[in-house]
């Protein structure tokens, strides 16, 4: 049965249609927000997937270019692999919803969102987030929702709920908050050094809106919601836990995990697993569950040690950061390099500078974003965690970590006018034991400064963790979590920023939300740790961006010309500009506003190209002096190319102070000569002189 529900959301109409399309999915909604249309579906398999110890959730965000009236480029006129924006959107949908499914649920679930029409003022990403939550809530899939999501911008200190495309471009904040009816469950933010107290205010402004949306969703679920289906639980039998504890008492498990060395701890657990496999060799049912059972035993042990005994696996205090180290200039030939180490987490970052023409071109649903000048890429090779597997290129995690670091650094980058370069930083994970994304931010800051990029301020990142008890008041926030505390804890709260304020947040949790006191404490802790990293670790290594670029980096000179002269510089079919490039070996980028970037590694050739361009666009007047090449000889004189397409003639009488019998006695084709413009006649013909008396500056008469 088709039903339609509507509410006002930030001054625009949100409509949810149920039963109109996709009836065979477990749950489906046709979402309309303004003129944005997204089909969101939730589908589950009828049986659990065998042989896995995780919940197999897949989230898709499919950008259809017909939604913005485009045909895909390239030879294959179909949409290709998911764009970076699609991957990041899918991750933002996944993170708040995953904790709301049962922990022992092993049925495959797919949340699919197809963007079918885009209104620039009504975010398709937000529409899909709400659609996934509603589709799952009305389905028969077990789900402890609903949840809702709101975006917040900030212009002149005022918060904007679900900002339009134009508002986003001038906003100092790009915040996305997901909530259940009681708590905040996900935070994602990019910010222009927003103070901590202002960020907390924005988070709970979004939380208020989310509660209104959830009340709206409740009315839909009440009328259209299906009864949740039963499922086959994959929980570990209590009898197995009891048998394991007899063989491995809690004190032994504590001793196994209580070490600051990851390899030692993994070796201890491996030895325990081998003992248990030998002990249960005849019980095939239990043999297949040992790995998961030991994992959960470790988890309970670590959580108890932290929450009740205030002991961390590596012996640190609750607010203590692991050993930190920073270095620059590890790679001699790259344009800039920096390495940041935190305990057993280590990132080596390389910075590359290039002309703006090498900025990344984007072909997506956002017509205002057609290129990206700063690119941060993150790589996570298997050796960084002591494993072996083939490299298959970046996955969703790598893309997400790279985007987080990129978002953290964009607010401090110089403008194109200040620094006319495309910039790429690449974070190579050398070693990983928790929060490599935040180490990437620190290493990127170091490499940018080492490369001479005049960033406005230094940026650092740190992550806080959480272990909770039975009540909302029973919790402990941990500064700088390592891998084990991330795996077994309830939260990974990453915050990056300068001393002035926050530039990025990403919060992942495994429980059903966070209270305001937890969020406030985590943000306060990350600020304290961030200031320590900036002042005591990074600044002593490199206190400000270098004044000069690497000798291996391209040099760029920017000049401005009359936009109406662009055609003269380019020439017919590009002949003029290509000749300049061929002669000097530089790269030339010309923008519609008349700004010209000349890029190369040879400073003399850059200056030569600039001189040629200026000579092309400059109106030639008597008295000007040029250096040009002789291109043609006649009986009566020589023609000199002053600039591409602009020749002048030196009459034979103007070649020398002495009498000249033949032109060849003084000049030949290809000679480079310095000349002065004597006259530009009514026909536009340019007459030149090489005579020293004409070239010499005239003395002022007394």
UniProtKB/TrEMBL annotation:
Reaction catalysis annotation: RNA(n+1) + phosphate = RNA(n) + a ribonucleoside 5'-diphosphate
Residue ranges constituting the KIX domain according to the UniProt record: 223-302
Intracellular or extracellular location(s): Cytoplasm
Keyword hit for Transport: no
Highest taxon listed in the record's lineage: Bacteria
Enzyme Commission designation: 2.7.7.8
EC supergroup of this enzyme: transferase
Keyword annotations of the record: Cytoplasm, Magnesium, Metal-binding, Nucleotidyltransferase, RNA-binding, Transferase
Main location: cytoplasm
Xref: InterPro entries: ExoRNase_PH_dom1, ExoRNase_PH_dom2, ExoRNase_PH_dom2_sf, KH_dom, KH_dom_type_1, KH_dom_type_1_sf, KIX_dom, NA-bd_OB-fold
Example GO BP: mRNA catabolic process
Keyword RNA-binding: yes
Domain S1 motif: 623-691
Cofactor field: Mg(2+)
UniProt binding sites for Mg(2+): 486, 492
Gene3D superfamilies: GHMP Kinase, N-terminal domain, K Homology domain, type 1, Nucleic acid-binding proteins
GO terms for MF: 3'-5'-RNA exonuclease activity; magnesium ion binding; polyribonucleotide nucleotidyltransferase activity; RNA binding; transcription coregulator activity
This protein's GO CC annotations: cytosol
Function: Involved in mRNA degradation. Catalyzes the phosphorolysis of single-stranded polyribonucleotides processively in the 3'- to 5'-direction.
Family: Belongs to the polyribonucleotide nucleotidyltransferase family.
Protein name: Polyribonucleotide nucleotidyltransferase
Source organism: Enterocloster lavalensis
Gene name of the record: pnp
């Amino acid at each position: 049965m088709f039903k339609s529900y509507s509410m006002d959301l930030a001054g625009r109409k949100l409509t949810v249609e149920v039963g109109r399309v996709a009836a065979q999915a477990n749950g489906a909604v046709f979402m309309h927000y303004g003129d944005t249309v997204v089909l969101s579906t939730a589908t589950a398999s009828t049986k659990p997937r065998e042989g896995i110890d995780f919940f197999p959730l897949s989230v898709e965000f499919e950008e259809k270019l017909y939604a913005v009236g485009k045909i895909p480029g390239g030879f294959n006129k179909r949409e290709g692999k998911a764009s970076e924006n699609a991957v990041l959107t899918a991750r933002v949908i996944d993170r708040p919803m995953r904790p709301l499914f049962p922990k022992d649920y092993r049925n495959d679930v797919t949340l699919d969102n197809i963007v079918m029409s885009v209104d620039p003022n009504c975010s398709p990403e937000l529409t899909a987030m709400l659609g996934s939550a509603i589709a799952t809530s009305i389905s028969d899939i077990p789900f402890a929702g609903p949840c809702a999501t709101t975006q917040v911008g900030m212009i002149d200190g005022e918060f904007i709920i679900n900002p339009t495309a134009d508002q986003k471009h001038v906003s100092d904040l790009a915040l996305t908050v997901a909530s259940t009816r009681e708590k905040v469950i996900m935070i994602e933010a990019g910010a222009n050094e927003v103070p901590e107290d202002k960020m907390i205010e924005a988070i709970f402004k979004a939380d208020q809106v989310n509660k209104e949306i959830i009340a709206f969703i409740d009315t839909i679920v009440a009328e259209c919601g299906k009864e949740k289906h039963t499922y086959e639980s994959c929980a570990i039998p209590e009898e197995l836990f009891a048998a394991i504890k007899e063989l491995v008492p809690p004190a032994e498990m504590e001793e196994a995990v209580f070490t600051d060395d990851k390899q030692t701890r993994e070796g201890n657990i491996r030895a325990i697993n081998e003992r248990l496999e030998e002990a249960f060799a005849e019980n095939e049912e239990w043999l297949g569950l040992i790995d998961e059972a030991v994992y959960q035993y470790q988890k309970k042990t670590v959580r108890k040690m932290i929450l009740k005994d205030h002991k961390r696996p590596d012996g640190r205090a609750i607010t203590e950061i692991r050993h930190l180290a920073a270095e620059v200039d590890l790679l001699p030939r790259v344009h800039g390099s920096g390495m940041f180490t935190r305990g057993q987490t280590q990132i080596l970052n390389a910075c590359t500078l290039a002309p703006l023409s090498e900025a990344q071109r984007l072909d997506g649903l956002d017509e205002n974003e057609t290129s990206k000048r700063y690119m941060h890429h993150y790589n996570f090779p298997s050796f960084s965690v002591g494993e072996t597997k083939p490299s298959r290129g970046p996955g969703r995690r790598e893309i997400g970590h790279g985007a987080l670091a990129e978002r953290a650094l964009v607010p401090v980058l110089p403008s194109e006018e200040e620094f006319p370069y495309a910039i790429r930083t690449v974070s190579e994970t050398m070693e990983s034991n928790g929060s490599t994304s935040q180490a990437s931010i620190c290493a990127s800051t170091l490499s940018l400064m080492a490369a001479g990029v005049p960033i406005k301020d230094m940026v650092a990142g740190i992550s806080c963790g959480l272990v909770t008890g039975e009540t909302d008041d029973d919790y402990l926030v941990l500064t700088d979590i390592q891998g084990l505390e991330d795996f077994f804890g309830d939260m990974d709260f990453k915050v990056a920023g300068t001393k002035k304020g926050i530039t990025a947040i990403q919060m992942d949790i495994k429980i059903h939300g966070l209270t305001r006191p937890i969020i406030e404490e985590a943000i306060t802790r990350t600020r304290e740790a961030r200031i320590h990293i900036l002042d005591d670790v990074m600044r002593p290594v490199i206190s400000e961006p270098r004044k000069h670029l690497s000798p291996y980096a391209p040099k760029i000179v920017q000049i401005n010309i009359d936009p109406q002269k662009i055609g003269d510089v380019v020439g017919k079919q590009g002949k003029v500009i290509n000749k300049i490039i061929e002669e000097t070996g530089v790269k030339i980028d010309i923008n519609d506003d008349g700004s010209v970037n000349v890029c190369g590694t040879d400073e003399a050739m850059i200056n030569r190209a600039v001189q040629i361009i200026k000579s092309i666009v400059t109106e030639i007047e008597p008295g000007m002096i040029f250096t040009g090449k002789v291109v043609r000889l006649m009986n009566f004189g020589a023609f000199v190319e002053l600039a591409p397409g602009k020749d002048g003639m030196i009459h034979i009488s103007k070649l020398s102070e002495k009498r000249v019998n033949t032109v060849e006695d003084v000049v030949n084709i290809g000679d480079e000569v310095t000349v002065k413009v004597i006259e530009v006649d009514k026909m536009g013909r340019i007459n030149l002189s090489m005579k020293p008396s004409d070239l010499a500056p005239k003395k002022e008469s007394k």
